[in-house]
């Protein structure tokens, strides 16, 4: 005799999986790198130079998404060799989280059955955008809030949430 699961217990999991697949498999080039201004969630121009010089990546945008249950961080690869450090899942990048600068609260990358909701690769492509989704438990992070993205030693600070 088979036991049927109620539809209500399946829907939240299905929704999360669809959102995860949308961001992981959807086109990551939907944002134009050249059109993001400081007011739209990117770091100030003078900080681009430091992040690009050391890590080979430039933040593009950080936005609330998924009914504000997620924070979507987008960045573009400027130097693929340097960016390998940021995009690897090695032990040096074990700590990956979003830091709310106002409260000091840390928000992790959700882990689903398909893995963490962050792009990783051993061979990053120049001028390609990558994304990381962070959970926004309790919808604590609001538009206009200041956050930092931490990936091991990489720190993109003073990002304004769109």
Can you lay out the helices and strands and say which pair or pack?
Elements: H1 7-25, H2 45-55, E1 57-65, E2 70-77, H3 80-87, E3 96-100, E4 106-108, E5 111-112, E6 115-116, E7 129-135, E8 146-151, E9 154-160
Task: Describe the protein.
The chain has 162 residues and is of the alpha+beta class. It has one domain. Strands 4-3-8-9 form a 4-stranded antiparallel β-sheet, with no helix packed on it. The chain has a 3-stranded antiparallel β-sheet with strand order 1-2-7. Strands 5-6 form a two-stranded antiparallel ribbon. Strand 1 and strand 2 form a beta hairpin.
Number of strands: 9
How do the strands line up in the largest sheet?
4-3-8-9
The largest sheet is: 4 strands, antiparallel
Low-confidence stretches: 24-43
Total domain modules: 1
**Fraction in beta strands:** 25-35%
Structural class determined from secondary elements: alpha+beta
Q: Tell me the span between the first and last alpha carbons.
A: 51 Å
Descriptive tags:
alpha+beta; 4-stranded antiparallel β-sheet; 162 residues; 3 helices; single chain; 3-stranded antiparallel β-sheet
Structure in a nutshell:
The protein is α+β, with helices and mostly antiparallel strands and 162 residues long. It is 23% helix and 30% strand. The chain has one domain (7-160).
